[in-house]
Amino acid sequence: MMEAFTKPQSFGIWGNTDKPRFWELLEPILKWAEQKKILPHITTRIKDQLPNSFKYKVEVIESADNFENIDFLLTLGGDGTMLSAARAVEYRGTPILGIHLGELGFLAKITTDVMFERLDMVANANYEIQKRMVLKGQIINNEESSTFYALNDFVIDRGKSHRLITLRLKANDRYVADYKADGLIIGTPTGSTAYALSAGGPIIMPMLKAMVVVPISPHTLNLRPIVLPDDRTLEVTFPNDGNDGIAFAIDGQVNQYLDQNSKIIIEKAPYDINMIDYKDSSYFDNLQRKMGWGRRGN
Prior knowledge:
- This protein is of the alpha+beta class.
- It folds into 2 domains: 2-127 and 278-291, Rossmann fold, CATH 3.40.50.10330; 134-270, Probable inorganic polyphosphate/atp-NAD kinase, domain 2 (Tumour Suppressor Smad4, Sandwich), CATH 2.60.200.30.
- The protein has 6 helices and 19 strands.
- Strands 1, 8, 9, 11, 12, 16 and 19 form a 7-stranded antiparallel sheet that branches. A 6-stranded parallel sheet has the order 4-3-2-5-6-7, sandwiched between helices.
- Helix 3 links the parallel strand 5 and strand 6.
- The two termini are 37 Å apart.
- The model has no long low-confidence stretch (mean pLDDT 90).
């Protein structure tokens, strides 16, 4: 469901500073902000790499709590850049607009050729907010626990081992299945078009309240991807499995290694990520343009 938003007075810039294209666009964006009288905020990483000739008035995002002081966050990079920004924003609700600097982007779906057209729409409050579900994952090992959040997915795989692993899945304490596989992907609707899709999972529209579970290279053909409602609490354990060094990845960017005694609890997070969208934006058009969905082969 879309919600209307208001005209922004300030915004943040979060970017992949390793890309030359980021630095090519930074000054034009700051000029745009000056013209629109919208105060830009930059991250400390960007600030530390600014040239001596830098002349624009900016504020600096010193900590994650500073996200509460800006009206939206502009990410410049790829989908990975947008995922890292979402992890930084967390529960603070700051809307995110992703600009893709490469060839393929599904989360960061705005391309540089229409960037200022879309930014003008934001400046004129001609945009909407789409809420994206987040997953909360808790790793419990020897009575110690760690908590992580994912906008796309959690991936549990065999990690350092060359053998298949056995993963037992329960939902609300009810047994679902034992998966003998290379691993298991547990994703959000947003993540359904990421790794889960390449592993054979379904496409789930972002506004649906659901979780997808997709086995990675299962040993049998009778364990297929499943979609569960978002009110379920999932538990993953490793029964009778001699593997240590099982890998746990969060949005493909953060890794933890587990042993066979670990337990993973996954459920819907208590907050959503707000993404900027537009009335003329089509989810299926994005699928067709970015992924070739529905096209016939040559």
